[in-house]
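so my prof wants the structure for this chain in the tokens format not the other one, which i didnt know existed until like an hour ago. anyway here's the sequence
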Amino acid sequence: MADNVLDTDEMPQHCCGSALVEPLIDWVRGKGRILIVTHDNPDPDALAAAIALRHLLLMGTGETAVVAFGGVIGRSENRLMVDALELELVPIAELNFDDFGVVCMVDTQPGTGNNSYPVDRPLHLLIDHHPPRRDYSDIYWADIRPNYGASATILYEYLRAREVYIGTRLATCLFYAIKSETQDLGREWSKADRDAYLHLLPLANNAILYRLSHPPVPNDYYSTFHRAIDSATLYGKVLVFNLYQIENPDLVAELADFLLRQQKVVFVMGLGWYHGDELISVRTTDPGASLGTVIQKMLDGMGTAGGHGMMAGGQIRGVAEDKATQKELEHLLTRRFIKILGLQTEPGVALLEPEG
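here's what i got, hopefully its the right format
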């Protein structure tokens, strides 16, 4: 990504820059309990953005917000992040939405299919770094910055703008979010992300950062890697793998990142079946690929999707559990993916030659 920051002039009219945080605090103050919703199966960026917003609102209003998520926190790094940094989170299914006077959403948007907050419920604050899915002029505060590499960076700027103290735990949380979301400033980053990264680094806990980068994993973690590699098929510069049934929804994205390292591969698409839904992750090394748009076209009429230029994901609800159905879906999505990318169809070749 180009080394630039999204100017407030480039934002939709209803978006608010970090220099204008005070009206947000004033509006929230006195309106009752606050709910902050992340996307389902939250990653470090969603977790950090939510925790930072909670801290900002606590310092500004005295009200402790509830941070809620759908799905599970499955990836080892993410579970360790929650435990090591003592992040307080609540499953969204346990909540009564009528108990809250203010509802916020971070790192996701209403109606995208990747969060469990009902689309017919009121939403008051929206902060995200994914491209906007619709006009959000009906929401009081909608700050969407697609040129930023992480939602955590936006919240970091909010804290700095209001001169809120950032302690070690929060600094570690924000730094790790930016680090993981931008792949150490190697993927889809902006000057704002770099500035936040460099400022937060000396404030973060290095021992915890090391643990987050090298978490312990169970035995079945390695069998999932084996399954991904064994199923991987090359179609020219496109690699497709299928994990079939998985116990952790984060694995599809993790394996897509891992297999993108294969020589001469430019695009990766991974699939996995989780609790009745087919999860799809796409990755690329091409900064101009616009994968968020690609996957929306690929899943048009089938499911929901979104993302950035170099990484995106989607889901198809209600897919049958049997392997034959999932294999058929893999072939259909592979054809669509290659066609939308404008690539020539090539015969599939297994990543690994069969033994013997």
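also thought this was worth mentioning. The two ends are 45 Å apart (CA to CA).
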